[in-house]
């Protein structure tokens, strides 16, 4: 799992201008939900980026989702994104 999170972090850092990114695994909070599956993650990305924070929230989130597009189809069920300067 930590290797997978490092992979996500690497993808984001390669494609976007980020100062820092923290990945929080909130999967345990969703056990018992209708579509819960242990093979997919519920993640919260806490991103520090002057560049992304200068964009509209929707534009910044679209850029992040584009980078993680394949992961969202296969390994990530839910994604919360927080962006600060």
Word description of this protein:
- The chain is an alpha+beta fold.
- It has one domain: GMP Synthetase, Chain A, domain 3 (2-Layer Sandwich), CATH 3.30.300.90.
- The chain is built from four helices and three strands, in the order αββαααβ.
- The longest helix has 14 residues, at 2-15.
- The mean pLDDT is 92.
What is the secondary structure topology, with strand pairs?
Elements: H1 2-15, E1 20-25, E2 41-48, H2 50-54, H3 57-67, H4 69-74, E3 76-84
Parallel strand pairs: 2-3
Antiparallel strand pairs: 1-2
Percent helix: 40-55%
Give the structural class: alpha+beta
The CATH topology annotation reads as: GMP Synthetase, Chain A, domain 3
Radius of gyration: 13 Å
The CATH homologous superfamily is called: BolA-like
Largest sheet: spatial strand order:
1-2-3
Strand content: 25-35%
Total beta strand runs: 3
* Uncertain residue segments: none
How would you concisely characterize the structure shown here?
It is built from four helices and three strands; from the N terminus they run αββαααβ. The protein is α+β, with helices and mostly antiparallel strands and about 80 residues long.
């Amino acid at each position: 799992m930590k290797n997978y999170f490092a992979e996500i972090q690497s993808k984001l850092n390669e494609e976007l201008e980020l100062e820092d990114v923290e990945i929080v695994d909130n999967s345990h909070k969703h056990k018992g939900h209708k579509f819960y599956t242990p093979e997919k993650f519920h993640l919260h990305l806490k991103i520090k980026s002057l560049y992304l924070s200068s964009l509209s929230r929707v534009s910044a989130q679209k850029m992040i989702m584009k980078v993680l597009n394949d992961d969202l189809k296969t390994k990530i069920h839910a994604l919360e994104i927080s962006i600060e300067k």
